[in-house]
Amino acid sequence: MRRVIYLTLIVAGLCCQPGAAKPALAATDQQLCGEETARQEAANGIPRRLLHAISLVESGRWDADRRASFAWPWTVTAEGEGRYLPTKRAAVDEVRRLQADGVRNIDVGCMQVNLQAHPDAFSSLDEAFEPATNVAYAAQFLIDLFRTAGDWPTAGAWYHSQTPELASGYKAKLMTTWTQALGHRDEGLQLASTDAARPPLGTLPWAPPRQTVAPVAGPAVAAAMPPPATPRVAEERTAAKRLAEAYRQTRLAEYRQRKGQLSGG
Question: What is the distance between the alpha carbons of residues 95 and 90, in angstroms, rounded to a whole number?
Fold first, then answer.
């Protein structure tokens, strides 16, 4: 028995040595977030793969073998750093450690629900990291945002922030991720014109190609507005470039802000 324990400790030590090959991620853990986002989309009339796309933006990891991204349920983000913990228990322990150090602005789980902004979302950290409850809360939050915004893309952007410059950058990334998740990479985004005579970017109804909203089976959610007619190719490219530039400028502003904080500026 002692020999078995000794060998186990050796193997565990080798796994943690710098440069050692990382253990394979559990396939079931890779699937947890995706299963729950699909369930909540179907139950609540949320457009297909939208909640999934948000989860990829929030807690996505890259699987080199599958050459695909997946949302990781044991993700913790705090102080500008994302942490992919190996297990649920490790994730709970990490949050407790951060809280003991006085950190309060912490995002958790598949959907990176912020514990400071949503203090009553979960009864415990164990529940916060449970994919079913984490995604269910995020789904209801997204639905509430949709009721105010009037369209799903804006609701998705507001899931991150309602500050215009932050929302526009997030929206650009989310729309790209959503379109890719739907498998329409070659069709491009159906974007409404954003000329000066129209409302500001983020207020127009938008939906991915060929998408319809399923009948509402859960909470009473207003029907999503139908997608606009496909714009001319030139207009579409211009709008897409504007979104990409807005995202780039947002990331640049955040970098400059962090750099200023580090330098004491």
Answer: 9
CA 53 from chain centre, in angstroms, equals 6
Longest CA pairwise span in the chain (Å): 77
Query: Can you tell me the distance from the alpha carbon of 87 to that of 83, in angstroms, rounded to the nearest whole number?
Result: 12
pLDDT above 80: residue 196: no
Q: What percentage of residues in the chain have a pLDDT greater than 90?
A: 55
Query: Do residues 155 and 174 make contact, with C-beta atoms less than 8 angstroms apart?
Result: no
For 112-135, what is each residue's pLDDT tens digit?
999 999 999 999 999 999 999 999
Contacts of 88 (CB under 8 A, 6+ apart): 73, 74, 126, 129, 130
Among the ranges given (42-56, 187-201, 212-226, 244-258), the one the predictor scored with the smallest mean pLDDT: 187-201
Q: How far apart are CA 42 and CA 151, in angstroms?
A: 18
Q: Quick one: pLDDT at residue 67?
A: 84
In sequence order, the 6+-apart residues with CB closer than 8 A to the CB of 90 are 74
Q: Estimate the crossing angle of helix 131-149 against helix 152-160, to 10 degrees.
A: 120
Give the C-alpha distances (Å, rounded to integers) separating 177 from 164, 174, 198, 212, 219: 20, 5, 25, 18, 26
- Domains detected in the chain: 24-73+109-263 (1.10.530)
Whole-structure pTM value: 0.62
